[in-house]
Amino acid sequence: MATTALEHTHVAKRSTLVEWLTTVDHKKIGILYGASAFLFFLIGGIEALIIRAQLARPDSTLVSPEFYNQLFTMHGTTMIFLGVMPLSAMFFNFFIPLLIGARDVAFPRLNAMSLWVFMLGGLFMNASFLLNAAPNGGWFGYAPLSSRQYSPGLNMDFWVIGLQILGIASLAAGVNFFTTILNMRARGMTLMRMPMFVWTTLITQILVLLSFPAITVALIMLMADRTYGSSFFSIGGGGDPMLWQHLFWVFGHPEVYILILPAFGIISEILPVFSRKPLFGYSAMVFSSAFIAFLGFGVWSHHMFSTGMGPLADTFFSLATMLIAIPTGVKIFNWIGTLWGGSLQFKTPMLFALGFIAMFIIGGLSGVMHSVAPADLQQTDTYFVVAHFHYVLFGGSIFALTAGAYYWWPKMFGTMLSETIGKWHFWLMLAGFNLTFFPMHFAGLLGMPRRIYAYPAGLGFEMFNVMATAGAFLLAFSILVFMYNMWVSARRGVPAPADPWGGATLEWTIPSPPQEWNFTDEPVVAERDPVWGMKRAAGVRTLPEPTRSSGQGIHLPGPSWWPLVVSVGILIFFIGFMVKKSWAFPFGPITIAGFLLTAIGIFKWAYEAPDANAPKH
Amino acid sequence: MIRDLRTFSRRHLPLLLLAAAAVTLTGCFDHSLYPQSTLSPKGDYAEMVDSLFQTTVWYATVVFILVEGGLLWAIYKFRGKPDDAEPKQVHGSTTVEIIWTIIPALVLAVVAVPTVKTIFDTAKVPTASPDGSQPLKVEVIGHQWWWEFRYPELGITTANQLHVPIGRTVDLRMKTVDVLHSFWIPQFAGKRDVFPNRETRLWFTAKATGEYPGACAEFCGIQHGRMDFYVMVNTPEEFTAWVAQRQADSTLAPTGLPKAPAPAATDSVGVATVPVAADTAAPVVLAAADPKVAEGQALFSAKGCIGCHSLNSVGAPKGMLGPNLAGIGTRKMIAGGWLPNSDENLHRWIKTPQAVKEGVLMQVPEMTDAEVDALVAYLRTKQ
After folding, report:
1. Who is most buried in A450, B57, B261, B346, counting CB within 10 A?
2. Is the CB of residue B281 less than 8 Å from the CB of residue B314?
3. Which of A:438-477 have CB within 8 Å of B?
């Protein structure tokens, strides 16, 4: 049936809860990704605040050493796997189909499964706090400390199994977006007409697909060592702790680019719009992204200079790492080139984008310092490194994700965020961020190691730590300002037009928020920045507000319970490996139950018609 | 006036910033306030690394000023109003893009040359000290959470406090008995990780006498934060005297009196699983001048301390679970190189190790304060 009550296009009588639990709509999934990732981000932030409170004074006893180790392990793990990655995934989910003119992703139910697996994996890992057994071996889980012998508790089981679960979510999403981008683009959108965010998303998925298998294998081996007494990493049985480091960083370094490439893409969308000028050197931006990703697989051992690999290996990884600075530099110069000669509009998304460039330059330069292997021997495992990667991951990724949040919020929710509060947010965050992390450069160079729960007085670390702690609380306050902005927007935000910023890409041609089918008429693309082309052809600065349609005749995949069922099955399957086994057979009843639930879910999913439960038109 | 200021700052701002950065990095630090600093090298290895780092910092500072300056300039210069006409639509410039690909490549090439040279220079363990003498071999063994040092040529063992002579290259061969650690004395050399299944090497030559703090730099479990140590750089004479003192440990009574005959009972505390043979075989002294010291000496055996801790620097058994305590009476720090070695701290450490260092592997039986005081008095005699 056709309906004009367009806010409620799911016609069947489903409660809101059921609707969200069974949704396969990429936009709802995106919002769920965003909401849960933001929640995890807040948890990770609270962990960071406790860490900073502990380090405010020398010889502090605010938290116990054991709890401190849990805090920094979970802070790192959370921010990487449950914060930045899924916040990027929020934008992939919501905006990749819109940017390429598609009505959904290639595999909508697989997309829902990615979400639920991620969410359950994140909850599972954080549930460890309730048992007072949060992971405590560092986000890198080095052997042999992570072995059963030196970490006998459940702590590292939560970590190994939690990461394994999250890896499934990432791999499924990787397959999905890779396929979506390659197969579902609007007519006329050739690869070299794709928006830059679509390019960096595509490259990110390639990185996920090639690097996650390495960590998956390593985690299976570690789980086998811990649960079945194998000896991949323990020397007792002939294993080698170095093997873990290589496997981990073969994943771990590409992971860095998995965290930053989506940010590059977001920035490359925002700068042109608020400079009113196309991206400078589009092709160079595409190829530099690809080159960065390619080189990203050849530099993993720069995380291991202090292991004494020998001068030849050090030289290779030193020089390879320096090479990455070249395409990264090209990106920064091209962004400045985009600004050059433009008519800059300092809206909040633009402020965060400019803040991103300014902060990322600092992180990039300290990164080059690390590539100088002998100097890195002094800097590695000190607060200098902590400063460096927060400049790229917070000053870089988080600033860019925040820019993206301000830029795309009106499209996602149909109301504007306040510009005034947004500007307060920006300046507070910029000040808090620099006050937190800039002094860490000095603390590190003056000899303060990382991951220490206390430092003695008299080594000169006091002042820098006080500054960092004060900055951290200022930073936390800026996040509260952001939350206030979201709350105000949700309560009484100004309704957003379809195209509030003068956008260049397809998402700005459809109503805010988009209707479930995104595009009533499938768009045809004839050039890069297609919407600017349309406006230029029509001789206007803003296209007329699009009308909402009835969506008659548009077929969308129907909601399904099976992705959620499969996700729960996967969670139970893995939990089975944690329970102390009192039987001879390696798999216990929990593992088998989880396996059966997963298998049944996949079977039912496979035989469920794609538009079962779909609203009829 | 304002225009003058603006012109002035436009012309000179980069220079001023550069100067400020230089002052920050080199001038305004009073290095004596930062004894663990990487920026005040006191040995040849660290000096090579520091000069390379300083070079990099200069290039980075120049690049920082140019790029951030360009960014700020663009933000200032091209600020627009909402109703401005559409700016010229430029899609790129191959020439410009080639230039800004090549320039960073050249800068990196300039940095790469000294980098590679320093990699090879620091990787080679010298076969002779700068003064021509034979390098001093030291075996470093990481433990959760303390450092053991062995001088194979001198036959002595110590823990958490490494003594080296000035001017003589120290040739470190390192391992761990448990998890990975990383050995780091910022003023002498970069970090080097230690592994259970292979030996790693590091070296340095100290150029100034004094006390230098070091730390474990690889996360190694609950007490990673309290795995520190000190390097004492002595004059050759002091070092010789220290070695002689360590070598004499097993022949001197606590008070410096000649040793009495060994007692019969050696295995009363049930620590048979620990290899204590060398210790128990060594002559143990009963005849101490101070009765409190004598009581402490008896308790050291009776309470089982001797099961894990050797008081002998010479012929100390390998595989001891606890740090060697030869010379503990005058060591700078206790409890893994971070707690000042006062009677009060030593008392607290022996009485309630878990309160001082949660998770530490040292097991102590219940003891009265008087007993602990006696142990402290005894350990104080170990000079």
Report:
1. B346
2. no
3. 445-456, 458-460
**CA A264 – CA A197 distance, rounded (Å):** 8
Backbone CA torsion sign across A427, A433, A436, A441: negative
Distance CA A343, CA A94 (A): 29
How many angstroms separate the CA of residue A14 from the nearest CA in chain B? 45
What is the distance between the alpha carbons of residues A531 and A584, in angstroms, rounded to a whole number?
Answer: 64
Task: Tell me which chain B residue has its CA closest to the CA of residue A314.
Answer: B119
Q: What are phi and psi of B171, to 5 degrees?
A: -110, 105
Domain boundaries, chain A: 2-606
pLDDT digits (tens, 9 = 90+) for A507-551: 999 999 999 999 999 999 999 999 999 999 999 989 999 999 888
Residue A123 has pLDDT above 60, yes or no: yes
- A279 to chain B nearest CA, in Å? 6
Distances (CA, A) of A567 to A115, A572, A587, A594: 9, 9, 19, 10
ipTM of the complex: 0.92
User: CA A498, A501, A502, A503 torsion: positive or negative?
Assistant: negative
A516 in Cβ contact with A25 (< 8 Å): yes
Helix axes of A348-371 and A419-445: crossing angle, nearest 10 degrees: 10
Residue B271 pLDDT level (bands cut at 50, 70, 90): very low
Look at residue B245 and tell me whether its pLDDT is greater than 50: yes
What is the rounded CA–CA span in Å between residue A350 and residue A195? 18
Nearest CA in chain B to A67: B222
Q: Domain A2-606 maps to which CATH number in 1.20.210.10, 1.10.3210.10, 3.40.50.300, 3.30.360.10?
A: 1.20.210.10
Question: φ, ψ for residue A103 (rounded to 5)?
Answer: -90, -20
CA distances from B160 to A401, B228, B229, B323 (A): 47, 7, 5, 8
Q: Do B193 and A306 touch (CB under 8 A)?
A: yes
